[in-house]
Structures are given as C-alpha cells and as structure tokens.
Write a structure and sequence with these properties.
By secondary structure, the protein is α/β, with parallel strands linked by helices. It is about 50% helix and about 15% strand. It has 14 helices and 7 strands. It is globular and about 55 Å long.
C-alpha cells in the first residue's frame, strides 16, 4: 500500500519542516514502486495493458471498457461524498480488474509471466517463519506481535482510501525540490507500469510540459539495459524490465543500482539537472 501512504508521509514531514514543528527530518525525496496512486487514471489503463500483453482479446477489451464510465462516476463520488462511497467505488471499479482475471485464468497478477499459487500468488511462508522467530522479533523490538504477509484487517481498513486521488500532494513537493521517483516492473498487472506512467505524465506541476518532452533513455546496469527512464528536475519515472510487482525481489541488482543512483543524484536523464525550482 506504499502507493497510498508514502506521499502522505512525505507531505506531512515536509510541512512540519517548513513550519519548524518538532525535530527537523532531512527529507530529500521519496519513491513509490508499482503503486496505486491515481485510480481514475490507472483503472482505465487495465484493459490497454491486458490487450497489449495478450491477456484478453479485442472483443473482451471493448466489453470491459463499457464498465469504465461507472467506475469514473464512482470515483468522483468517493472524492466528494464520504467513506461509504469510497468503499462502493472499490467494488464498482474492481469489476474491471476481476473481469480481466476471469479471462486470463490463473495468472499471477503481480507477474503475468507466472501462475498464481496460493491466496497471495506467492509463497511467503519462509519469510513469515523467519520474521516470527523470537530472536528476530526481539532484535526488531516488536514484542509478541505476529508478522503476517497480508493482514485482512489492515487490507479491509485501507480499501476506504483505495479509490482516492493520492497524488494531490505531490506537485507541492516537486515545486519545493523534493525528489520523487516512481518506478514499476513491466510484468505487473495489478499496478501496471502503463497506468503509473500515465498519471505521472498528467501530474499538474510547473515542470509537466518539460517532463512530457523529456527523452526516454535506457537505464543501464552492468552494461545491459535494465529499464526505460524518463526524468525532468526532481521527477523520475522508471519502467524496469523483467520484473513484476516486487522489483527488488525480481531484479535485485537493478533495484539496488536504481536506489543508489537516485539517492546520489545520478539517475536523471541527460539535461535534467539544470532544472531550478521556482520557489
């Protein structure tokens, strides 16, 4: 759920820093990996992504797209009419995603190259066993709290925010020079790179036009292209090759190089480092 939380945290920290509230936190930037951030844009990308990757046929595409107007109306209600309408929007819009899955079969919707195994499409049992060892819990200082890979209680509670536009605070951060990296593994369906690319390109800030005109360049790791990068000023978007929803798991070297380069200010494409914040 980092697509729904990281920007809120960054906005709150940045606001606190500007108002000199409490301890100054040296926030320089934040990243979102395969997140759901702007659902009104991203849900409309599901059918395009599915068709491009041959998960559905053109007749399926046309049929499922008939659900999009209802989804758009439901999302607008979520933004205006409170919590229950947001829960309703989640149900309405998820019909789009579920319709694709019914046609595509038992694919892993986090990585369309694989089949879905188990309730989460991955076997995280070894990780759970490791994290629930007493020595590990003591080292982390979490007491007797049990780690679970996906808590249904947390999941259900966060569906209330699922359909909100969570990109609204990002432009103000960009204007103040806070670096933002949006990256996405190209094999992920559920939070696919296409929908993420679209909301990033449509983000309304002073650098929007120049970001749109910026070149897409290869992201090179150990002499090979590991992705496609687009940058302007403090904003970067990276599509990672041969990776699904969890880029660090699928492409650990590329993920490490991405973060190291970004934190060192070396990720940006040619010519973007001349951008100056208007503030």
């Amino acid at each position: 759920m980092l697509g729904t939380t990281s920007q809120h945290l960054a906005s709150r920290v940045h606001q606190g820093n500007k108002k000199k509230e409490g301890i100054h936190i040296n926030l320089k930037g934040f990243a979102i990996g395969n997140g759901l951030t702007q659902p009104e844009i991203q849900y409309k990308a599901y059918t395009d992504y599915a068709l491009d990757n041959k998960l559905i046929e053109k007749t399926d595409y046309d049929s499922i797209n008939e659900m999009i107007p209802d989804c758009e109306r439901a999302i607008k209600s979520c933004g205006n009419d409170g919590v229950s309408t947001c829960e309703d929007a989640f149900g309405v819009c998820n019909n789009i995603f579920q319709s694709i899955l019914q046609i595509a079969g038992d694919i892993n919707y986090y990585d369309i190259r694989k089949t879905c195994e188990g309730s989460l499409c991955y076997d995280f049992s070894k990780m759970e066993t490791f994290l629930n060892q007493k020595t590990v819990r003591d080292a982390l200082g979490v007491g007797d709290i049990e780690f679970v890979s996906c808590s249904s209680v947390v999941y259900d509670a966060m569906t209330r925010d699922w359909m909100r536009n969570l990109a609204v605070g990002i432009p103000a951060l960009l204007e103040d020079g806070i670096k933002v990296l949006i990256y996405a593994g190209e094999e992920d369906l559920i939070c696919n790179w296409l929908g993420n690319s679209r909301w990033v390109n449509q983000l309304a800030w002073s650098g929007q036009k120049d970001f749109g005109a910026a070149p897409t360049v290869p992201f090179i790791v150990e002499g090979r292209e590991a992705g496609q990068l687009k940058s302007h000023g403090p904003l970067s978007f990276l599509k990672v090759h041969n990776a699904g929803h969890m880029v660090p798991m699928d492409q650990p070297k590329a993920a490490l190089e991405m973060l190291k380069s970004w934190m060192q200010g070396k990720l940006a494409a040619t010519g973007t480092r001349d951008w100056i914040s208007p503030q």
